[in-house]
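LAB NOTEBOOK - FOLDING QUEUE
OPERATOR: T.R.
BATCH SIZE: 2
PURPOSE: Compare the predicted structure-token outputs for two unrelated chains run back to back under identical settings.
PRIORITY: normal
REVIEWER: second-year student, initials M.K.

ITEM 1
FIELD SEQUENCE / FIELD STRUCTURE:
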Amino acid sequence: MSNIPETPYGQYEFFLKNSSDHLFPASVELGCRDWNDNRGRHTDCRILMKWANGEIECMDWHFFGALKLIRRQLALQDIYPICYGANRNIIVTGMALEMGLGLKVYKAKIGSYPTRHDLVRIFATGEDVEPVTVEIQEEFQRQWVESINRNQGMG
């Protein structure tokens, strides 16, 4: 794998917020390696996040997963990225992970399906971003799935 060249996937800038609501700039650099061998297809998506007081690098098979790994480490310091990938009310779909390498998620509301207009980049930001822990975000996704299943049962 080390001989597989990494494809750059861009750099993004946004802010981090600490428990005192202090904002400070951060940046991420994205790279991806994709290869096939006798065991099948493999993908390593790497994120290097840097800010004035540190840096964290994580890898997963999609960028959203790598961001979650970084967010878990940041949360130990009470630091949260202000971007849609760390937002409370988002859902991620299998198609977004597999076809888009987890670079986009849907802004969602309990009980309704998001549309393509709700699709946002994980490192984009907006006034509606509410950064939360990975666990709170995953709980929202579970609640959203339950609400959709309940609504389907009513038809």
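ITEM 2
FIELD SEQUENCE / FIELD STRUCTURE:
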Amino acid sequence: MARRSKIWSGALVAGALLFTSLGVGGIATTTGAGAPDKEQTVSLSGAAHAGHKMAASTAASGDDQDGDGYIPANPPVTGVTPSTAEPPHRYFHEFQANCYVSHTKPDDPIVYPQQPGKSHDHTFMGNTTTDAGSTTASLDAGSTRCLAPGDRSAYWMPTLYKGNTSVLPVGPQVIYYKAGVTDYTSVRPFPKGLRFVVGSPTQSVSEFRNHKGFVEGWECGDSFFNSDFPTNCPSRPDVQLNLRFQAPSCWDGRYLDTPDHKSHMAYPVVNPGTNNNICPASHPVALPMIEFKMAWPVNGDLSQVRLASGPAWSFHYDFFNAWDDRTLRTMVEHCLVGGLQCDARGYDQNHPEAGAALNARYELP
């Protein structure tokens, strides 16, 4: 079966949103009616995450000063209406964050902040300092194993084992930043400190397969769309175990985190009138859609392969944004809003006339 991925596109109509004042992290803010209060925010998006249970963390994390699990955005983004516009068709609107594995540790600064050793083992990419005590400030001050020095974000997932031996991805892993809505020109950068969990270690096999982030599932060789590790995996040096999984890309504009680490985010929905993908009214702010494309150097007999969190369908991942604001804004505007298929420098080889967003050192010129 041929490889496939979700592509969102459209044709030209008038009516793109105009945003006026620039807030933290390059986020434009507008005036208007505010988002719901804490209790309403959770209930509004609860249906989008039904069946994906995650224990709410009550320990103060340094960012969550009152320990209630809510981290307000400062400033919040209010008065936004989901865009139904259709910009000129561009087949791609994405860029890559190529990041190496930095370390493994039984920590999770989102679900178990300030509780070292509390979590199952995780494989961390990007920021080299990520641990149970990580905060926005500590990540911002840390170093990174992403090609772009400005990407000090933390990315992590359950460690994969073959028997009792951990198997770590080799080389830079591809983390896509894409437009999840038809109006790719409406996508804004992540606010600094935004964090969320995609999927759940306690989800069932059907919940994993039917999750909105499921793209190709587990694949190896010519076996695709698997909820479990594929049994047909050739023993060849060029064959690896792969997974593609997408994150929600619509934000409520109010919170950088919520107690279940999901309710402030939602997946795009289909607009019945136009059949376009738009953000729901409860989460109207379009952000980049992260897609993990992971590769583990394991093949052949996979009967002894497991995740630290359990079976194959317990896969999930975490994201904690610590990008340099100017670098992320430049990449989003050049590649996503610009309708390009960019590498980690923000260069589209099919459109060389557009130039690169970053220099040869993956930094702003």
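REVIEWER COMMENT (ITEM 2): Residues 21-30+37-354 form one domain.
FOLLOW-UP: none requested
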